[in-house]
Amino acid sequence: MSARKRNHPAESHDGLSLTSALHDCLACGVLVVNQRGQITSCAPAVLRLLRLPRRPAANAPLSQLPAPLQKIIRQVAATHAPVTERTVTLSGDGNDSVTLHVTAVPVQAGPNSCDVVVVLNDISAVQQLEQSMSRLDRLASIGTVSASMGHEIKNALVAVKTFTDLLLDNNPDAELAGVVRREMRRIDTIVSQMLKFAGPARPTLSAVRLHDILDHSLRLVQPQIEGKLISLNRSFKAAPDAIEGDDYQLEQAFVNLFLNAIDAMGPNGSLTVATEIIPASPAKAASPVGGVLPQVRVTVADTGIGVAPENIHHLFEPFFTTKNHGTGLGLPITRRIFQEHHGDISVKSEVNKGTTFNILLPASAPAC
Ligand code: ADP
Ligand code: MG
Predict the structure, then answer these.
(1) Is the pTM of this model over 0.85?
(2) What's the gap in Å between 59 CA and the centre of ligand 1?
(3) CA of 260 relative to ligand 1 center, distance in Å
(4) From CA 154, how far away is CA 174, in angstroms rounded?
(5) How far, in Å, CA of 244 to CA of 122, rounded?
(6) What range does the domain containing 178 cover?
(7) Does residue 128 lie within any of the structural domains?
(8) 233 domain residue, yes or no
(9) Number of domains in the chain
(10) pLDDT tens digits for range 281-311
C-alpha cells in the first residue's frame, strides 16, 4: 500500500481501506469526527471544498475546520439529531468562495461513543446556473416589455404627429417645422425597427418569385439611385427563381441592403444585384443552409467606401452604426429575415473598393 495510505488515520484499521478507496473517488467530501472532537477521517475532496491548505493530521482537532462547519458538527454531537443539506458559504482568498450543502449524521461508534459523519457537496455551479437562468428570464421579460412599450410609443406618436402638423401648418416657421418633422420621423423609424427586431413576427411563407421581389425593392430605392447617379448592374440568372418566402419581409431586407449600398457610395458608383442557382450538392449536406437541395444566391455588391476590418464582425450586431443618423438595426433585421427563411447572409468588404453581401436561400423547385 502507498505512503499516502499509511499517513491516513483511517488506514490504521483494515476495515477502513474500503472507506479510503471511496474517499479517493468521491466528488463530494466526506469527513468523520469522533466524540472527542478529533478528525479521524478526511477525504481528499474535503481539502478542495473547504479551501484547506493541507490534509488535517491524524486526530487533528475540530477547530481546524471552518467555524460554520464546527458549529454544525457540535450541534449534531450534542443533540444526536442529523442536519441535512444545510447551505454554507465559505469565502477563500479574494473572490474565491464556495457554496456547500452540508449533511451531518450521528453514527454509533461504540456503546458510549458517537461519531459524526459529514458529507459536503459543492453546489456553487448549480447556484451559478440558477443565477444565469434567472438573468435570461429577466432579459426575456425586458424584450417583451420593450416590445409593448414600442407599441405604446408608436400610438402616442400618431397623435403627437397629427397635432404638431396642425400647429406647424398655422405657423410659418418652416425651419422649425422641418426639424420637428424630421425628428418625429426618426423616432418613428427607430421604434418600428425596434419592434421588428424584438417582435415575434414570423414570416408567412408562400410561393414567390425572387426576381419580382428584387425588382420591386429596386423600384422603391429608384429615387436614391437616380439622385446619386448610381449605375445599376442587374444580372438575374437564377432559373427558376421560385422560393418559399414572405414577399413583404424579403423586400424589407433587400431595401435595407440597397440603401446601405447607396449610402456607402458617392456619385457614379455602381450597384450590382445578381442572382444564380447553386445546384444541389450531397457533399455539402452538412452545411446549415440546404446542401442537398438547390439554393439561390443573391449578390448585392457596391463600389462604396467599404468596411474597416475591425468593424466587419460588428455589422450584424444591433445598434452598430457608423452613420450620424443611423440606427444600426438594418442589418440585424435583414439577417434575421433571411435566417427565418432558412437562408443566410455573409459579407466581404475592402476599404475604398466596395462591399459584397451574399445571400443564400433555399430554391423551392429543382433547378433546370
Ligand atoms: P445603419 O444603416 O442604420 O447604420 P445597418 O445595420 O443597416 O445600420 O448598418 C450598420 C453599419 O454597417 C453601417 O452603419 C455601416 O457602417 C455598415 N455598412 C452596412 N452596409 C454597408 C455597405 N454596403 N458599405 C459600407 N458599410 C456598410
Ligand atoms: Mg442601414
Answers:
(1) no
(2) 71
(3) 5
(4) 25
(5) 52
(6) 134-201
(7) no
(8) yes
(9) 3
(10) 765 544 555 456 899 999 999 999 999 999 9
